Amino acid sequence: MVAQAVVMKASMTLLEFIKPFFDSSSYQLRHPMLFDIDWRTIDDVLLDMDGTLLDLHYDATFWLKSVYSVVSNLTGEPEHRIRERFHRELQKHEGTLVWYCTTHWASFFGIDIIEAKRQLAHLIRFRPHAQQFLDALKPLPLRTLIATNAHPDVIQLKLDVLPLAAMVDGIVSSHQYGVAKEHPDFWKALFDEYTIDPDRAVFMDDSPKVLEAADHAGVRRVVEIRHPNLSEPPRAKWKQGINDFDVLIPSLEMMAKT
Q1: 0.70 cut: is pTM over it?
Q2: pLDDT at position 143, please?
Q3: Domain ranges of the chain
Q4: The CATH number of the domain covering residues in 26-55+125-257
Q5: CA 65, 69, 72: angle at the middle one, nearest 5?
Q6: What are 79-102's pLDDT values in tens digits?
Q7: I need a surface site. Which of 54, 116, 130, 257 has the fewest CB within 10 A?
């Protein structure tokens, strides 16, 4: 799989290689799909953080633009060489925990990644209707957990900006389990630790590979967030999904009244 990716992507620029992980411009949605969940069949609501609850524009801006100038200014290395080195290193770790590990990238670049990301903290924000969606879940007999590939120090950076921890029942980083959400062992560990019945769970994420992993793990409803980056148009890469949480809030509010 890695070898194939290297061959296919060898002629691509760094931007072309990494941009699909942040880009929302492909597979334009022309006809938004009506979406409904029978919340009576759900006990656990599992949510990704970046690109699902939070605007992916922050992370995309840092990894696609800012990091190269930061490293160049600190080290004197030309930005094009930094991009080339980063490209080669990314190819080695796609889909693994290292891809998301700020400790690894801090060592690789020779800079304080978190401090560099903190300079863009003003871009950290909720996606539309995310707060209202979490508020609508609060009075219901449903457990809400964030399941993210973000490194714990990145999670803390975002908690310093937004009151996310107080709005959910728990935050789980894949770094706690030693494997990324793309790996089946992540889901086994998550289900075991929180005594989750996957047949009574819903999971929402913007990554097709992660959605596929959740689906293979037996999660009852797997929902794509199709507008993860608010600076880009929506896209559809998974068989079922929503642009924003507003289409789910009415059914939650109705359930709260029954």
Answers
A1: yes
A2: 98
A3: 26-55+125-257
A4: 3.40.50.1000
A5: 145
A6: 989 989 988 898 888 878 998 999
A7: 257
